[in-house]
Design a protein that fits this description.
Probable membrane transporter protein; TM_pro_TauE-like; transmembrane helix; TSUP
Length: about 240
């Protein structure tokens, strides 16, 4: 669906999905892009959904990076970021040339792989050294450019290097800020940003903020670990739907 032809009902659903994804992010620490990009294609074109999520998600990443800036360590993400910067344009341009039904099926597979990885809580080997950082960073760049779900490779890399929770909170938003800025610049170069899309970003931003605030409030009453399992079940169902 072209965003120019989106009805008010579709715009409301788009805003609610962004709010839901933001709520999931604030309660569990993950999942904004995964939830948003998985659900938005039911109401808008995949390429537009990815661009919208990148623009809105940048706001959250900047806020999180500033809040956890004392735990940010540039030395831990520099090689990841350099590799990702090189491969982001590959993902962006690939989304232009791959048929949307194939891209949606690929997205479904990626979502299911992430759900399986998170659910099984696999014991991962220690992977140190720059080659591994470049490899995981490159994978994150491609996924960021194509679907804005570059988080899983970075999370796996951090787990392999035994990052502490504080290091995750400080370093992940920093990586995503860099990647989002480059992805946005590439999408602008590709002509993906239009006045209509920016209007939709403005419309969705309050839902994003509301989701963050609601998640912070609910975190006092809801167990984040149990809610995370519910989200994984939801993502698994969405992933299967995308494959059909």
């Amino acid at each position: 669906m072209d965003i120019l032809n989106a009805s008010m009902a579709d715009s409301l659903w788009i805003g609610l999905i962004v709010g839901l994804a933001s709520l999931v992010q604030s309660l569990t620490g993950f999942g904004f892009a995964l939830v948003a990009v998985s659900l938005l294609p039911f109401f808008m074109d995949l390429q537009l959904a990815v661009t919208l999520v990148i623009a809105v998600g940048l706001i959250g990443n900047v806020v999180l990076w500033w809040y956890y800036r004392e735990n940010f360590e540039w030395s831990r993400i520099i090689h990841l970021s350099v590799a990702a910067l090189v491969t982001i344009p590959v993902g962006v341009m690939g989304l232009h040339y791959v048929p949307e039904h194939l891209a949606l099926q690929a997205l479904g597979v990626l979502v299911l792989v992430y759900v399986g990885y998170s659910w099984l809580q696999l014991s991962l080997p220690e992977l140190t050294g720059r080659p591994w950082a470049y490899a995981f960073g490159a994978a994150s760049g491609v996924l960021t450019g194509a679907f804005n779900i570059g988080g899983p490779p970075i999370v796996i890399y951090g787990n392999c290097n035994q990052w502490s929770p504080e290091q995750f909170k400080g370093n992940l938003p920093g990586v995503f800020c860099v990647l989002s800025l480059v992805a946005i610049a590439t999408h602008i170069w590709q002509g993906d940003f239009s006045a209509a899309l920016l209007t939709q970003v403005e419309y969705a931003a309050p839902f994003f903020v509301a989701g963050l605030g609601l998640g912070i409030w609910l975190s006092k009453y809801i167990d984040a670990a149990n809610f995370r399992q519910i989200v994984l079940v939801l993502l698994g169902a969405i992933g299967l739907k995308l494959l059909i």
